[in-house]
Write a structure and sequence with these properties.
Blueprint: H1 2-13, H2 18-39, H3 49-60, H4 69-91, H5 117-130, H6 132-143, H7 148-155, H8 159-177
Helix pairs in contact: 1-2, 2-3, 2-4, 3-4, 4-6, 5-6, 5-8, 6-8, 7-8
C-alpha cells in the first residue's frame, strides 16, 4: 500500500490526471483513520471525519504531486489539526459563550495529561519558532501517526536525529503543558 501511494503520487507529478482519483481512493481509508484519531476524545464536535478529509483534499490540490507518502500524511495531519483548532476557536469564542474545555488524547504522548487543544496549538507554535524540525517531527509522529523511519525519510535526516528531536520535543511539550 505504501509503495502504491508513492507510485500514484509520482504518476500525478508526471501529469497523469487520472492518478488523482486513484490516489483519493487509495488514501481515503488511511485519511479516515487519521481524521478519527484527530477527533477522538473531543467534546461533542460538529466536525465529522469526512469533513476533515475533504478539507485536506481541497487544501492539498496541486501540492500532493511534490510529496511522497510520509510527507503527504504529515501535511494531511497538519491541515486536520489546523481545521480542528480553527473550528474550536470559532465555536468557543467569548462572544458565543465559549470557555468549554476540549481535550486531545493519543497514545503517542501517554506521559502528558490530555491538554486543551488551543493551549497545545499555542505550545506547538512556540516549539516551531524554537526548533522547526522538532516541531515537524511532532506533527508527523503525534498527529500524522508516522513511524520514526518514515519521518527520517520525509525530513531527509538520520533515524538517530529524528529520535533525538522527538525526545527534545516531548520534553519541551511536557514542560510547557504541565
Amino acid at each position: 500500500m505504501t509503495s502504491d501511494i508513492t507510485l500514484l503520487l509520482h504518476q500525478l507529478s508526471a501529469g497523469d490526471a487520472a492518478a488523482r482519483d486513484r490516489l483519493y481512493t487509495a488514501l481515503y481509508p488511511e485519511l479516515k483513520r487519521l481524521a478519527r484519531s484527530h477527533l477522538a476524545g473531543h467534546a461533542p464536535m460538529t466536525l465529522e471525519p469526512a469533513a476533515l478529509i475533504h478539507e485536506v483534499w481541497l487544501k492539498s490540490a496541486g501540492q500532493e504531486a511534490a510529496l511522497h507518502r510520509g510527507q503527504f500524511f504529515a501535511h494531511a495531519s497538519k491541515v486536520m489539526r489546523s481545521v480542528i483548532v480553527d473550528h474550536l476557536r470559532e465555536r468557543h469564542a467569548d462572544k458565543r459563550g465559549g470557555g468549554a474545555q476540549v481535550t486531545l488524547s493519543t497514545t503517542a504522548l501517554e506521559q502528558l495529561v490530555p491538554p486543551d487543544v488551543l493551549k497545545l496549538d499555542d505550545v506547538l507554535q512556540t516549539l516551531a519558532r524554537a526548533d522547526e524540525r522538532a516541531h515537524r517531527v511532532v506533527e508527523m509522529r503525534f498527529f500524522g501517526g508516522l513511524e520514526m523511519e518514515e519521518i527520517a525519510q520525509a525530513l531527509d535526516v538520520s533515524l538517530p536525529t529524528v529520535k533525538r528531536d522527538w525526545r527534545k520535543a516531548r520534553a519541551f511539550l511536557f514542560d510547557a503543558l504541565t
